[in-house]
Amino acid sequence: xxxxxxxxxxxxxxxxxxxxxxxxxxxxxxxxxxxxxxxxxxxxxxxxxxxxxxxxxxxxxxxxxxxxxxxxxxxxxxxxxxxxxxxxxxxxxxxxxxxxxxxxxxxxxxxxxxxxxxxxxxxxxxxxxxxxxxxxxxxxxxxxxxxxxxxxxxxxxxxxxxxxxxxxxxxxxxxxxxxxxxxxxxxxxxxxxxxxxxxxxxxxxxxxxxxxxxxxxxxxxxxxxxxxxxxxxxxxxxxxxxxxxxxxxxxxxxxxxxxxxxxxxxxxxxxxxxxxxxxxxxxxxxxxxxxxxxxxxxxxxxxxxxxxxxxxxxxxxxxxxxxxxxxxxxxxxxxxxxxxxxxxxxxxxxxxxxxxxxxxxxxxxxxxxxxxxxxxxxxxxxxxx
Length: 385
Hints:
It comes from Leptospira ilyithenensis. The chain is α/β, with parallel strands linked by helices and 385 residues long. It contains 16 helices and ten strands. The protein has an eight-stranded mixed sheet, sandwiched between helices. Helix 3 links the parallel strand 2 and strand 3. The chain is globular, with a radius of gyration of 22 Å. 39% of the residues are buried. About 4% of the residues have low confidence.
């Protein structure tokens, strides 16, 4: 094939446009119960479910499950979900919404808990007191203890709401003014307190949990949601080796891998880890890569494993972006296409959903056309028949 003809054929595989709304928080409120860095909008998996699944009751899989957006949206749209991630926090965020209890049931459960029971001071409290008033910290610890002994859906959901209120920049959070999406170090918070001339004041956690639940549960979930969510599978594995998923059992994959050295999930979530009793684990290698060679190697092995679990003829959508490394802009979708060769997956097209960064994105020091990703670049791969 002549070079010009080949380039023309490849250019036809790139689709540009606004395929879903650029507005924020347009999906079901249950998606926004808790924040998580580097999450995509629910409109993204919804678009591709409608594009590639023409019947209900299919199996949708996300090997980099994150906050659980793909799994929750699959259940909302009448599909079964498999949620995988190597981060235990991710498994909790997703599985805590496998069952969504009613508001009145949750309030009754919360009111039955005695959160003011005395708890002696413990080693490690000094790390927490820059964020929380001592009486607030007692209430949080009591809730933690109830969660250890009670794994009911009601307690799991209450824990999820509490996690979302743990720290932030308004009086709706349990903490004094701090950053909401990531846990900054205690010494940094101490400096903030001095700079802002603030001291953690007492904040009742029950009222704040109820306020958040009332907002998140204001819109009813679809009546069939639990019919599908009860059969979800949640797996804690690296995306390139998920033995608990049966070969050729998945109808669609929609996912987004970690980009190059953009997020440190361990350090950024240390307060959430404390709340959920997630221990440090030096063997848990969260996928953070400083160079494109290592990233590509990992992506290739993930694509090979994804090909194994996909049904023949089924599709995989991998959302990536362009990343600036020094003066060079790397379009990671091109690397995904290259890495798919020899895995059993064939590139069919790439959707490039253009967008302008929001105010929230700029909070991460991510500016348009400078750092991070400035567009959703969704590579569509198909498993050969």
